[in-house]
Amino acid sequence: MAADVTHVITVSCTGFFAPGPDYAVVRGLGLAPDVHRFHVGFMGCYAAFPALKMAKAFCEADPEATVLVICAELCTLHMKSSNSTDTIIANSVFGDGASAALVSARPPAMSRPALRMDHFETTLTPLGVGETEMAWTIGDQGYNMVLSTYVPSIIESHIGGALLPLMSREPALEGAAHNQVEHWAIHPGGRSILDKVQTSLDLSDEQLAPSRAVLRQYGNMSSATVLFILEGLLRSAGQDERVCAMAFGPGLTVESGLLTKVCGH
Q: Cα–Cα distance between 191 and 194 in angstroms, integer?
């Protein structure tokens, strides 16, 4: 119920206004005026992860908290005509989308599926690697997107190392083959990125299918995309099966998380 929401976290990198989207959500949904509001802005495709981590922290600090996380991206507002290969690629893969999640410390309602957020990690590629290959700046004619054709190769080279801190959080996964995690929600920055991740981590076609399906149907919706994939896995994964989620963004930054499918009893 709307009355249960104690915190609102909105996420977007495709526009700014004040009062912001967090305010619009509180007014539009008729939430209490004392709801705590936060906005995660201009972090790019991985921004759902900082928002989920923030929500998890709120719930750990206050077991009665219910946090509404909303990612809304209007990527097509920033499409530009250009002969640049990088710009053409960006225009071809990005789309508009919005997704939301409710985060709570309370157990799921009877027979309702949920994803338990077990661990999160963030890391950067080595200094000087990828910093200029994926960027998002504001110029004289609006937002300027850089999405280099080298990004998939950079991710391929560093994805295994980027996952080490996450997998080391659990002895059963540390040193194990990545495909031992049943389900994967990999941010589909583009088909080539998914291909490189699949090859590097030795994942099956079935494990990549949810990410490829979202890319094919909706495109890269920046921060909103990974929640689309997780929503599908929420329905298809079995009880107590694990999900590894990942997203990449400017920096290059790699955000990752381990989750577990659970159901209310």
A: 5
Query: Rounded to an integer, what distance in angstroms lies between the CA atom of residue 254 and that of residue 60?
Result: 24
* Among 148, 13, 130, CA closest to 78: 13
**Active-site positions?**
45
> CA 254, CA 247: separation in Å to the nearest integer?
6
Tell me how far apart the alpha carbons of residues 195 and 160 are, in angstroms, rounded to a whole number.
Answer: 14
CB 182 within 8 A of CB 237: yes
Residues 119-128, mean pLDDT to the nearest whole number? 91
260/90 Cα distance (integer angstroms): 33
- pTM (two decimals): 0.93
Closest CA to 198 of 217, 179, 218, 225: 179
Q: Please determine, for residue 265, whether its predicted confidence score (pLDDT) is greater than 70.
A: no
